Sequence to fold (166 residues):
Amino acid sequence: MLDSAPRRSALNPLAKLIATAGGLVRTIAQPDLVQAVVRLALAVPFWRSGILKWDGFLRLNDTAIDLFTQEFMLHLPGGPYPFPAPATMAFLSGCGEIVFPILLVLGFGTRFAGTGLLVMTLVVELTVPDGWPVHITWAAMALAIMRWGPGRLSLDHLIRRLWALE
Fold:
């Protein structure tokens, strides 16, 4: 019969290393930090797109309107179809791409902002169906925000705590 004690003692340092690494990962990846990073990660692409649509306060640039008038199409069965009211759609898109990311970064109205960006992601997917690998990532982040909320590193959490004290 073979003695398993030498094998066990050789694996013991490896088991300790794995346990230490697991503990380190759990320490770093605290849920509140993860939620804040997910909020930021979802906010960035929409913010970057949104700032390109404006020439000033509530003044869309011509490119934004041209995109919704001439370039962007809804890829629905029997389509593609042009966007209805392209100037209005460009304005709403530009507003959403600025307001929702700001709300996410602040953690204010977080579930509302996540829902808004999920709807925008669905529209983007209908507009650019080949972009689904990126769009599904955005959808997953929006759904996570909608389900688990902003976490403790947010204005939503601070406001809830202040109201609970009164």
In short: The mean pLDDT is 90. The first helix runs from residue 5 to 28.
